[in-house]
Design brief:
single chain, 446 residues, alpha+beta, 2 domains, six-stranded mixed β-barrel, 16 helices, 57% helix, elongated
């Protein structure tokens, strides 16, 4: 150990004698390690963000959204009808009648598609909520208990809807955490009534707060579940407007001009869970065909498979991380070559020192240790500064570019390990070159 400490002191003296050169040599390691830290922080942050989004949408889900056809989509539907020959001559300018997205559609999907597990319909009704003299704009959402299961929402207090409440369309509700906070504060909300539009509902449950970033909610196109009032879907159809009962003349479709589109869909959204993830694409195709047939070839719906979209996003992120890794690897390689170059130059400058040490009894192993330690110390010095630079870069990226970054302890350990390996790998050749010098020739060198 004394011998190692002696070599370490000699290495430190050699570095301190050329501080500027040592610093410039370490710059390649600094930028390389900094790039590694930042890359791993971005990759880990992106992975956690994707996992968070996966939790929000649930596993193996297909989302169906109702759409009000625009003028362009109506023209496309008419063209498709004309091409398929489904329109009669007298009705060639009229868009075929579609009943919209209904509960009957979901029942048909469940009966026809064996790969479908759970189905959750949603009806969103914008309302004014009134309680204790306070009024705010919010939403009533008609759901079944399956909605809470698929979206991984848990009841903090109270209970879910009973079978009798759902079948009878009882005026009961489950409120989100933000609704409880805004209207009841610290008071208990269970058993109390809240007015949504013109209807009063008794609160039977309060959901646990769902923590999700605004970015995740926007990217997935979902609501903040904490801000809604949930009531049985049958209650919505009984006590609010059942849009499926609107007639063709009320809506003004089928080729008639109307100043503004009206929502004729009974349901606004539906979530369909597939039993096996490998059947997601095939099930989505079957659902699209069922809906197209039931809606008379009118495409007034959107079918999304969020999990597949997130998988594609994850592959894109992995490609991006690979590019960053290559850039970081090139920086480290350049840094290692710089260390080798400077150490070779240092050996040529210190030939006489090497010869003197050998003549005084130093072995080749001692010379190797001395120069190898110099290379390792320069690498570790660069690695230390690189870690600081990487952490600062990751935080700067997170704040300025709005990209999630997570700095983990193992990434710092990895960076130090890489720096040490580069010091050993690229310092070994110059150290061996110094050790094989002939002591007599070395002493004679001017």
């Amino acid at each position: 150990m004394n011998r190692i400490f002696f070599h370490l002191r000699l290495a430190l003296e050699g570095i301190s004698a050329n501080k500027l050169r040592a610093f410039l040599t370490a710059l390649g390691i600094v930028f390389g390690v900094g790039a590694v830290i930042a890359m791993l922080a971005i990759g880990t942050g992106a992975k956690q963000a994707i996992l968070e989004q996966m939790k929000l949408i649930g596993a193996n889900n297909i989302v169906i959204k109702s759409v009000i056809p625009s003028e362009d989509s109506e023209e496309n539907n008419k063209a498709n009808q004309s091409a398929s020959g489904n329109n009669s001559n007298g009705n060639k300018d009229k868009l075929p009648w579609s009943p919209g997205l209904t509960l009957a559609d979901l029942e048909s999907i469940a009966n026809v598609t064996p790969t479908v597990g759970k189905i959750s319909p949603e009806i969103v009704v914008p309302v004014s909520i009134i309680q204790s003299g306070r009024m705010e704009k919010s939403r009533c959402v008609g759901v079944t208990n399956t909605f809470f299961d698929l979206n991984q929402l848990r009841v903090e207090k109270g209970a879910l809807f009973s079978k009798g409440q759902i079948e009878a369309g009882k005026p009961v509700c489950i409120i989100g955490k933000n609704i409880q906070t805004r209207f009841f504060g610290t008071e208990g909300a269970l058993g109390k009534q809240i007015k949504c539009g013109q209807n009063w509902f008794t609160i039977i449950g309060i959901l646990e707060k769902r923590v999700a970033s605004e970015e995740s909610l926007k990217s997935l196109g979902i609501r903040d579940y904490n801000d809604d009032v949930y009531i049985p879907v049958t209650t919505v159809l009984l006590r609010f407007n059942n849009r499926a009962l609107i007639t063709k003349s009320d809506v003004g479709r089928g080729g008639e001009n109307n100043e503004e589109d009206k929502n004729y869909h009974q349901l606004d959204r539906a979530i369909i869970q597939v039993t096996e993830s490998q059947n997601l694409r095939a099930t989505a195709d079957v659902i699209a065909r069922i809906l197209k047939r039931r809606h008379h070839d009118v495409v007034d719906y959107e079918i999304e498979v969020p999990e597949l979209l997130l998988e594609q996003e994850q592959k894109t992120q992995e490609t991006f991380n690979l590019v960053l890794a290559v850039i970081a690897g090139i920086s480290l390689l350049v840094g290692g070559i710089g260390i080798m170059n400077i150490m070779l130059a240092s050996v040529l400058e210190r030939i006489k020192e090497i010869g003197l040490r050998r003549s005084l009894g130093a072995t080749r192993r001692d010379i190797i240790f001395q120069f190898l330690l110099e290379a390792v110390l320069i690498s570790l010095f660069g690695g230390t500064i690189g870690v600081v630079l990487g952490i600062a870069s990751a935080r700067l990226i997170a704040s300025q570019a709005d990209i999630p970054t997570v700095i983990s302890g193992w990434s710092i350990v990895l960076a130090f390990g890489v720096a040490a390996v580069i010091g050993i790998g690229f310092g070994l050749f110059p150290a061996r070159k110094a050790a094989i010098q002939d002591p007599i020739k070395a002493l004679r060198t001017e």
